[in-house]
Amino acid sequence: MKQLDAHDTFSRFNAVSLALGFAFLYLPIVILVIYSFNASRLVTVWGGWSLRWYGEFFRDRAMIEAALMSFRVAATSATIATLLGTLAAIALSRGEGFRGRTLFSGMLYAPLVMPEVITGLSLLLLFVAVEAERGFWTVTIAHTTLTMCFVTVVVQSRLRALDRSLEEAAMDLGCNPARAFAAVTLPLILPAIAAGWMLAFTLSLDDLVIASFTTGPGSATLPIRIYSEVRLGVKPEINAICTLVIALIAMVIVLASLASKLTSARGESVAPL
Amino acid sequence: MSARGLFTRPARLAAIAPYLWMVLFFLVPFGFVLKIALSQTAIAQPPYVPVFDLAQGFHTIEGAAELSLDNFRLLLSDNLYVFSYLRSLGVAAISSAMLLAIGYPIAYGMARLPQQWRAVAMMLVIVPFWTSFLIRIYAWINILQHDGLLNQLLLGLHLISQPVVWLSTDTAMYLGMVYSYLPFMILPLYATLAKMDPGLLEAAADLGASRLRSFWLVTFPLSLPGVLAGVLLCFIPIVGEFVIPDLLAGSSSLMIGQTLWLEFFTNKDWPVASATAVVLLLLLVLPLVVYDRLQRRELETAR
Predict the structure, then answer these.
(1) With B37 labelled, which of B135, B160, B221, B292 sits at a CA distance of 20 to 30 A?
(2) Residue B156 touches partner A, C-beta closer than 8 Å
(3) Under a CB-based contact definition with an 8 Å cutoff, are residues B278 and B37 in contact?
(4) Domains and CATH numbers, chain A
(5) For A132, which DSSP code?
(6) pLDDT at residue B51 above 50?
(7) Computed over its alpha carbons, how large is the radius of gyration of chain A?
(8) Within 13 Å of residue A40, how many CA atoms lie on the same side as its CB?
(9) Three-state DSSP class for B78?
C-alpha cells in the first residue's frame, strides 16, 4: 500500500504544472480586463482607474451597430443550430444504423476541425451562385452550419450517457415514442440543449473568418470591426469592448454550469424511478 | 417489436432536416469550390463597390468556364504557394509538438487531482475555449507590443537593456498558437488519462517499477489515443489558421490561410483562391480521415 501511495499521490510536479498552465491561460485576459479601466490614453501607462473607454465605446455608432448585428446573428443562428443539432443528435444516438449514416456523421464532424477559410470560401461561392443578397441571413446560415455541429456533439454525448431503459420503461407503460420522448428524454437532455445553445451563441459571436467571407457591405459584425481596429494598433477602447464581451460570455458560462448542475440533480431524482 | 426498436424509426426521421441542411450548406458548396477552381481566370476588373465587384467577378468566371487545370499548375509552379503550404505544415507540426509538450503535464496533473477538484479544473480549461479567439490574441498584442508589459517587466528586472521586438515575429505566432489551442490538446489527453485504471499503476509498483518507469511503460503508451486525438484536433485547424499568423507573425512568409485570404480579398482572384482551398483540403484529407475514424471508434466504445 505504501508503494501505491507513492505512485498515486498528487505530486509537486503535478501542482507546479497545473499552476503554471492556468496562469498562462488566464493572466493575459486578466491584464486585458484591468487595462480596460485605465484612465491613460497610452495603453501601457497606468493612469488610475476610469470608465472613460466604456463611454467612448457607447458613443461609437459604427461599433454599436456591429455589436447589435453580431447579437442578432448569434441569437438567430444559435436557435436554428440548436434545433437542427438536437435533431441530428437524436438521429445519431437513437436511430441505429440508417442509410447514409456514415456520410451524415462525417458531415457533422468535419466542420469541427475544418479550417475556417475553406468553410467561409465555399459558402460564399454558394451564396454568389444563387445570387443571394449578402448580409444578415447569409452570415446567419453560415454560422448555423458551423455551430449545429457543436450542438450535435454536446447533445449526443448527453444522450449517450442517458439510461435507455428509462425510455423503454415509459413505452412499456404505454407511451408512444413521441410521448416517451417528450416526457422522459427531453427533460433529461434539456440542460445539454441549453448548453449547446450557449456554445453556439458564443461561437457565432466570436467568428471572424467565416463572417468576413459571407457578409456584405454595410453589415460588419463585431469581430470584423474589432479586427480592422486591431490591425491599426492597440486602442484602449478595444480593451473596453473586449472586457464587455468577456463579461457577457462569463455570464453565459455561469448560466450553462447552473443548467448542468440542474441536470445532475434531476438525473438523481429520476434514477430511482 | 421491442420498445427500443419502436423508438428507432421516429429517431431516424429526425435526421431529415439536419441532413438536408448539411448537404445543402456543407457538401454542395464544395462542388462550387471545385468548379471555380477548374475554371479559367478571366477577371481583371477594377474594384467597384465590393458586392457588385464580387458578383461581376462570378459572372465573368461563369462565362469563361471551361474546365482547366491552369490554376493548379500555377499553384505548383509558383514558389509563393509551395512555400505557403510547406510553411503551414511546418508551423502546424511545430505548434502541435509544443502543445503536446505543454498540454501533457497539465492534463496529467488534472487526472491526478482528487475527484472533487477535477470538475473545477475541467471548467477552468473549457472557459478560455468559450472566450473569443480574437480577444485572446488581442490580449497578447497588448502584452507583446514595443512598450508592453513584457518588455517593461524584462527591463525592470534588468534582463534586457532595450525593448525587444516581440510582435510580428514567429515567436509571437507560436505563443499565440499554443495559447489558443491549448484546451483542444488538454481535453482529449485528460479524457484518456482520467479513464485509466489505477490498478495498472499499482501493479507496476508491486513489480518494483519506479514512478518514472511506470509512467513511461504504462501511463504514456495507454494515453496514445488521447495524444493522437489532441494532435489532430490542433494540427488540422492550425494548417489553415488565418487570424493568429496575420496578427502576430511578420509578413515575410505567409501561411496558406493568409495566401488564400489575400488571393480572395486583395487580388480578387477567385479561381486561384478556390484552387488553393482544394489543395489545402487534399493535404488535410489523410488527417481528417484518421480523425473521423477516431471519433467513430470513440462513439462505438462509449456505447
Answers:
(1) B292
(2) no
(3) yes
(4) 61-270 (1.10.3720.10)
(5) P
(6) no
(7) 23
(8) 9
(9) coil
Can you spell out the DSSP letters for B134-192?
HHHHHHHHHHHSTTSHHHHHHHHTTS-SS----TTSHHHHHHHHHHHHHHHHHHHHHHH
pLDDT at B218: 83
Cβ atoms of residues B110 and B122 within 8 Å: yes
- Tell me which chain A residues have a C-beta less than 8 angstroms from the C-beta of B102: 21
Residues B265 and B39: their CA atoms lie apart, in Å, by 19
CATH superfamily, with its number, for domain B80-302: MetI-like (1.10.3720.10)
pLDDT number for residue A146: 95
pLDDT surpasses 50 at B272: yes
pLDDT tens sequence across B155-201: 888 888 888 888 888 999 999 999 999 999 999 999 889 888 777 87
Of B67, B58, B61, B63, residue with least CA distance to B38 = B67
Interchain pair B141, A234: CB under 8 A: yes
Can you give the pLDDT at residue B2?
A: 57
What residues of B are in contact with residue A95 (Cβ under 8 Å)?
8, 11-12, 14-15
Low-confidence residues of chain A, pLDDT below 50?
1-7, 267-273
Examine the pLDDT at B19 and tell me if it is beyond 90.
yes
CA-CA distance, B159 to A240, in Å (whole number)?
32
Mean pLDDT for all residues in chain B:
82
Mutate to test the interface with A, among B13, B21, B91, B293 (most CBs of A within 10 A): B21
Condensed to tens digits (0 to 9), the pLDDT of residues B108-149 reads: 999 888 888 888 888 888 887 777 788 888 889 888 888 788
The whole-angstrom separation of Cα A106 and Cα A101 is: 8
Distance (Å, whole) CA A80 – CA A150: 13
Sequence letter at residue A162: L
pTM for the model: 0.85
Nearest to A91 among B12, B26, B125 (CB): B12
